[in-house]
Input
Amino acid sequence: MAYIETLYGHQAAVTDIDCHVKERPISVSMDRTARAWKLAEDTHLIFRGGSKISWADCVSVVKDDWFVTGHQDGNLCLWMTEKKKAVETVGLAHGQIGAVGRGIHSICGLKGSDMVATGSNDGYLRLWKVSSFQWVHSFSFYWIAFDH
Output
């Protein structure tokens, strides 16, 4: 591994990065932005969730122009690189504790597919269909760790 280049743009810590196309990584940061980097042109696009969405913990690129972000306040957002705002948002995607949404701390999608998986601190892995942005199934991991 060798150092290649530093990309400037985010104003706070970068929390995750993912890439589907070689020269188009997507990053999310505590500055409440997602950025689509165009490495060949040395530019980037900025995506903002608005004042009601907290910063993103994780990102997964599912297709060339589509990516999904998981946020601290429990929002799950679907983005298209041609639009500056989220195309779809699911609030409290992993439920809530009292009045506070469970943060989405991990997300992964099979590149080019229509499915993503999200994880939170509720003990469940949730599968989502990207085309309809609907919850499909949940798997409990509580029994694996505590029920012998």
